[in-house]
Design brief:
Layout lengths: L1 H28 L3 H5 L1 H20 L4 H21 L1 H14 L1
Helix pairs in contact: 1-3, 1-5, 3-4, 4-5
């Protein structure tokens, strides 16, 4: 079971990393002042937002689960940016083990 959780964590963090890269391309090509000033913020919103959407395609909406995903999603996004993909996967595995 732990092996499956590791694969899931790697897949989800790789997805968010890919969406972050995609969002970077989008925000760099938009010529709106507010987006240019806060590019990293908008990239994180796009990456975490798509990750949230992915979770609610799989199961029904629940406010408590939504709040949990928002908090953990942004924490994992910060870890991804600061520590890289490996650190984010490890953090995701630890979160899954303790959840």
């Amino acid at each position: 079971i732990i092996g499956v959780w590791i694969i899931v964590a790697f897949a989800e963090e790789s997805y968010r990393a890919a969406i972050t890269t995609f969002a970077k391309v989008i925000t760099e090509n938009i010529k709106v002042k507010i987006i240019n000033r806060y590019q990293t913020f908008w990239q994180d919103i796009i990456a975490v937002g798509s990750w949230l959407l992915f979770h609610f395609i799989q199961r029904s909406f629940n406010w408590l689960y939504f709040a949990w995903l928002v908090v953990s999603g942004f924490i994992l996004q910060i870890i991804l940016r600061k520590g890289g993909l490996g650190a984010a996967v490890l953090a995701h595995v630890i979160i899954n083990l303790t959840a």
